[in-house]
Amino acid sequence: MNTEIYNLFVYGSLRSGFRNPVYQYLTKYFHLLGEAVVKGKLYDLGEFPVARPTLDEKFISGELYGINEPGEFSWAIGQLDDYEGLNAEEGETPPYKREEVISYQDGKPVTAWIYWFNGSVEGKPEIESGDLLQYLQQKNKP
Predict the structure, then answer these.
(1) Residue of 19 and 103 predicted with greater confidence
(2) Which residues contact 90 (CB under 8 A, 6 or more apart)?
(3) Does 83 or 116 have the greater pLDDT score?
(4) Is 35 helix (H, G, I), strand (E, B) or coil?
C-alpha cells in the first residue's frame, strides 16, 4: 500500500450533499479539494450505491478530499476503513476494498484512495449517469 497518497475520492454517502454523520468525521481530518471523477461504474443495490472499477469509458462523479495533517492519515483512514467494513471477521469477505485510483479534477490526474465494492453486482441496475446525487434526485421526483 502506498503511504504517500493523502487524498480520498468519495462518491456516495460521504459526499457533502448527504450530510451523513460520518461526513462530520471526514471533514475533521480531510478538506474538500473539489469535484472529481474516476473511471468506474455505480450500481444501485437498493439501500445504498456501490462502485466497481471498469475498463469501459464510464466515470463516477464524486468529491476529492485531502488530509489536513499527513501525520494523522493512517489513523484517520483507519477509522474510515472501519466504517466501510474493511476489517471483517475472520472467514468473512469485507464488503469493500480500498484501492489506489487516478481521479480527474478539472481534467488533471490526481492519485487518491477509493472504496470499491467487493461483492456481486449481478442483476443490479447500473446508475448510468455515474452521479449518485443526480440519480437520487431523478429517482425521487414525484
Answers:
(1) 103
(2) none
(3) 116
(4) strand
pLDDT in tens, 43-79: 999 888 899 999 999 999 999 999 999 999 999 999 9
Name the pTM for this structure.
0.91
Strand 126-127: give its sheet, edge to edge: 49-52, 41-44, 126-127
117's enclosing H/E stretch is: strand 108-117
Q: For residue 119, give the nearest of 74, 69, 85, 72 by alpha carbon.
A: 85
Pairing type for strands 126-127 and 49-52 reads unpaired
H or E element that contains 103: strand 96-105
- 36 close to 64: Cβ distance less than 8 angstroms: yes
Partners of 116 in beta bridges: 97
Helix/strand/coil for 131: coil
Q: Any idea what the Cα angle at residue 132 is, between residues 40 and 124, rounded to 5°?
A: 65
Given a contact cutoff of 8 angstroms between Cβ atoms, the answer to whether 42 and 49 are in contact is: yes
